[in-house]
Design goal:
Elements lengths: L8 H16 L9 H13 L3 E4 L2 E4 L1 H5 L2 H8 L7 H7 L5 H13 L3 H17 L7
Length: 134
Amino acid sequence: MIEKQCLTRTEIARRLHEMVDERLFGDKSWPTDKESANEVNATLLELGLIDRTEQGYRNTPLGNELDVELLEAFMGNWDEYELPEILEMRGLIKEDALQHLRRILCKRTGWESTFKEYVRRAYSQYFNPTQSLN
């Protein structure tokens, strides 16, 4: 168990980015399944990035500061129908890509690999904003 009061903001941010790398580029499941989503949420709780509420979870001020919502999207820890909107709202995909991803979801099969590729590109764009991906 991680003791959040012992970790600095930098250490928490580093762990959060490690979690993204494990899922988006490593061998952990992407998108998260129920078991791995519980694992992600437990870690985010321990790190002090989210709190549990009667309705589910909400970001803490630190979670908002570190943009845990977007980083969870990079981890695949969002409902597949919300994921494209999160990327589009942040300017990481354009409207035509959003519509394309929605059409892929309508087919209900094979969406994971396409989404993961879009999310990887969005991740690269977010962390290397001067590089053009188009």
